Structures
1.
Amino acid sequence: MAKKGPRAKTFAELAGEPTWSETAAVRTGQHAVRLGGTNVAGEFFDPSGNRLALEAADVSTDAAQEALDAGALVVAESCGCGGDFGGCTPVWLSNQQLRSLRGGPPPVFTGSHRAPTWLELWGNTEGRVIYAHGDVSWGGMALG
Ligand SMILES: [Zn+2]
């Protein structure tokens, strides 16, 4: 009797294995990485694509300035939606803008558009991020 070669895997066996397609699904589904944005699952990423975790949902303007002085990045959405809905694109401050704000006066809630306004602190192993929502001005510049 001839020796059998390796039998083909059944569909069930294949489906039970982690495959490239599952990995791709993680990148393209609701958990897709959005550089500097929020995906459908509500996960928020820094501009390098590293997932951020919310550290504080409401920080003071002084605390935000302290975080900035310590090297935090700043991102803003000016409509006050919270940033996790389509149609609102958070704006990240450039390194040059961040440098100009370090050591300066803390941000100001202007109320100029009567948008819901607050500051969040996010972080990951790369660093921290201040997320400014609504009518926030920093260093005389309206954010978002
Ligand atoms: Zn918004």
Note: The CA atoms of residues 48 and 58 lie 24 Å apart.
2.
Amino acid sequence: MNEVIRNLLERRTIRHYKEKQIAEEELQWILQAGLYASTAGGRQSPVMLVCQDKEINEQLGRINRAAFGQANSDGIHFVSQAQKSIADDDAIRSGFYGAPTVVTLFAPSSWLYGVNDCTSVAVNMTLAAWSLGIGSCYVSRAEETFASELGRKLMREAGIEEHYMAHVCLCLGYPDGETGVAKPRKEGRIKFVR
Ligand SMILES: Cc1cc2nc3c(=O)[nH]c(=O)nc-3n(C[C@H](O)[C@H](O)[C@H](O)COP(=O)(O)O)c2cc1C
């Protein structure tokens, strides 16, 4: 197995982060990996907003959490036992899990492949992050989070035009505690025509 494949197989979503901010050089590599992601038509539609303001990330994370609703909390079907998600535990108050860095990906709302492009960028970034020892979590409900008054204010201040829509929030930080292991892969998900 080569190093790239190993990184792909070993990457896990991280939701417990150390307080320490990620190193600037590592952040720049992660952003660069995002810039080089595949995008529909090669249009490079996504724009990134990097937020390292603790208070703002906490406020946006709470807005994000509120947009989710209740956790499943049946105590059996965990998203992750080691790195519990808001779907696992109602006591988690921020959908950003206290991550020191959150990168939100926006694309023009009129662009048919905006969600796909932002996802493509996010995936590149999660893998680059893992290869550098940095944990990440792909977070949904970016649309609702940035439709808030605070979200719209941040967009204005950052010069992100109103017709852009947030599609993914990517949490980044050094992993804290147990990483967890991948769930067993479901059978029968690969079909061949040969
Ligand atoms: C499209 C998509 C949306 C996701 N949304 C969330 C989310 O809102 N909150 C969260 O904690 N994790 C979210 N995740 C992370 C998944 O829960 C995680 O990838 C999954 O449980 C598998 O774990 P792994 O990444 O460690 O393999 C999302 C992942 C994807 C691909």
Note: Helices lie at 3-10, 24-35, 54-66, 114-131, 142-147, 149-158.
